[in-house]
Every structure is written in C-alpha cells, then in structure tokens.
Amino acid sequence: MGKCKILVVGGTGYMGKRIVKASLAQGHPTYVLQRAEIGLDIDKLQMLLSFKDQGAHLVEGSFSDHQSLVDAVKLVDVVICTMSGVHFRSHNILLQLKLVQAIKEAGNVKRFIPSEFGMDPARMGNAIEPGRVTFDEKMVVRKAIEEAKIPYTYVCGCCFAGYFVGNLCQLSTLVPPKENVIVYGNGHKKVVFMDEDDIATYTVKTADDPRALNKTVYIRPPENILTQKELIEKWEKLNGRKLTKITLSKEDFLAPLKELDYAQQVGVGHFYHVFYEGCLTNFEIREGEEEASELYPEVEYNRMDSYLKRFL
Ligand code: NDP
Ligand code: GO6
C-alpha cells in the first residue's frame, strides 16, 4: 500500500512550509495549493517553485473559487490546513469553512487536519477577550467539520519555540533579553515548548494513523514540559550569565491590556492562559485522546537547550 496523498493548504506560511517538508520527508505524494491571490508575492511564488523542485505537486486554486477547492481536494486522501491564526499576520481561521464545504462536497477525503497547533480551543471556553476569538473561531471550524462528518485529527497542546523560546517567553521580541527578564508570577507553571519542525513531523505522522482518527492529539513530550524559570535557567547556563528577574503579578500583567493594539491584546491574553493558568498542562490526557511522543516514540524531538544554542 502506497503512502497517502497529502494536500497542504497554506503551504507557504510559517507552519505550512514545515508541513510540506515533513510530508515530503515521510514519503507522501505531496500537493500544495498555489493560490491565484499570491499575485506579485515573489517570495511565496519562489517557495512554491522550490517545493516543486523537491517533488511536490502544485495545485492552482483560490478560496474565492469553490470548484477549484473541490477539484484540489479530490486529488488527495488527506488535507492539512495551516491557515494563519496569528493576529499580527493575516489571521483568517474562519476561511477554513470554505475548505470544509469543499471537502464535504468532494467526499473522498479520509482525514482533515485543520489549522490548530496551539492551545486546545475546546478547553478555552473561559478565555479572556479579545484573545478568545482564536479559540471561538477554531471551535466554529471544528463544529463544521464534525457536522459534515469529515474524518479529522486536531493537533494541539504546545507553544511554538519561535514565538516563545528564543525570547525566554517575552512579548514583542523573538530574541533573548540581555539584562532583565520578565517572569510571569512565580514562573512555575508547566508549559510545553516545541520546535515547529517537530510539530510538523508529528502532524504528518497522524495523517494516516487510525489511532488519531477523530481525535485530539496533544503534543506534550516529557522533556519539553518546562516552566518559564527552567527555560531561563537553561539559557543562563548556556550563556554563562545570569539575568535580573522581574516578577510580574497577573494583575500587573493584565492591567495595560486596553492600551495595546488589538494583535497585542490577543497575544497578552494567550500568554496569560499559558503562563499564569498553565492551560497547556493543567489537565490529563485521557482515554479517547492521544499524546504525540507516545504514539511516535521513534521521533527524536528537539530539546529546548539545543534550540537555544542558536541564540548564543
Ligand atoms: P501564517 O501567518 O504563516 O499563515 C499561513 C498561511 O495562511 C499563509 O501562508 C497563507 O497561505 C494563508 N492565508 C493567510 N491569509 C489568507 C487568505 N486571505 N486567503 C487564503 N489563505 C490565506 O500562519 P502560521 O503558520 O503562523 O499559523 C498556523 C497555525 O498555527 C494557526 O492556527 C495559528 O493559530 C497557530 N499558531 C500557534 C502558535 C503556538 O505557539 N502554538 C504560534 C503561532 C501560530 P498561502 O501559503 O497559500 O499563501
Ligand atoms: C501564539 C505572540 C508573541 C503574541 C497558541 C504577541 C494560538 C495558540 C500556545 O502568533 O497570540 O511576542 O498556543 O508580542 O493556540 C502569538 C500567538 C504569540 C504568535 C499568541 C499562539 C499560541 C496562537 C509575541 C507577541 C513574541
């Protein structure tokens, strides 16, 4: 039996390009949606051409052309969508409803993996405004998938290292602070940090795995469950220098929320849930749910001390 065919929607994005890479690496016939709207975006076009050089098939289509989406999904067994959900980029999670309609109509897709890859929206019913929009929208997409009886896997449960590790969990920067580091509360909530390439590897692994059918797969590998304090210590050890810790209470963290722009308000809300509530780890993974490193013990996921070495 050959490897299942995978269509990546959102393939030139931050997560999408890694899904394309992982799909090719795992030997899947890999299809990437080439949207008409990219127009003069030369970087996207060049990236798509490089995917083709690596063996991917480019499929022309557009979210404003329903038939083109139906035709695209008819080519494959699995659709993985990495639509933007990042509020300082081109967040568009609800656009996936069009993809859900196309998959429903096409009728051939054996698995749909929607754009999730973060906090489990099903557990974020009490999230604060305006950041909760992320979870509300992802839940709207889930509801449409389940109502259409489309087989699915929801991949979630961790923080992207790119947004959370290099900066030692500081907002508005992606590199380590030089002198002072803001510590959220006592810095002791357990967080899950993952190299995005490993998230992509696990995601593609679930695509044809019956154990992941109609389930949520949490990415929570034991070695990458760390508190903010532990992450800071790893950096200090590597860098040979201590940082000055500035403890921030949850009240002080949330106080300036209203003065920030919308995207940052969303981000602050998300940081609040991750670092003050510990929302990634304050529940057990139960019957009917799976954990990625247990399903795929052969994957040698990157540890965060080696990830941090890139910043030395
Ligand atoms: P990006 O911002 O990189 O965008 C991904 C793709 O979305 C783009 O490349 C583009 O596809 C597509 N897209 C954007 N706007 C439109 C539009 N108007 N019409 C059609 N397609 C559009 O997204 P990320 O990779 O950063 O995010 C993917 C997921 O990961 C989201 O669900 C997000 O919430 C989650 N996330 C989780 C994080 C975590 O720490 N856990 C951190 C960051 C994101 P194309 O390639 O066709 O141009
Ligand atoms: C990451 C961010 C970083 C925001 C999730 C503002 C959805 C999730 C862990 O896109 O808003 O500086 O789960 O100043 O389910 C963004 C979002 C983080 C990055 C959160 C995210 C995480 C989205 C910032 C900033 C580094």
UniProtKB/TrEMBL annotation:
Listed SUPFAM superfamilies: NAD(P)-binding Rossmann-fold domains
Domain of life from the UniProt record: Eukaryota
Keywords for the protein's UniProt record, in alphabetical order: NADP, Oxidoreductase
GO molecular function, one term: pinoresinol reductase activity
GO biological process annotation, one example: lignan biosynthetic process
Ranges for domain NmrA-like: 3-308
InterPro entries in the record: NAD(P)-bd_dom_sf, NmrA-like, NmrA-type/Isoflavone_red_sf, PCBER-like
Family stated for the protein in its record: Belongs to the NmrA-type oxidoreductase family. Isoflavone reductase subfamily.
Protein name as annotated: OLC1v1031050C1
Species annotation: Oldenlandia corymbosa var. corymbosa
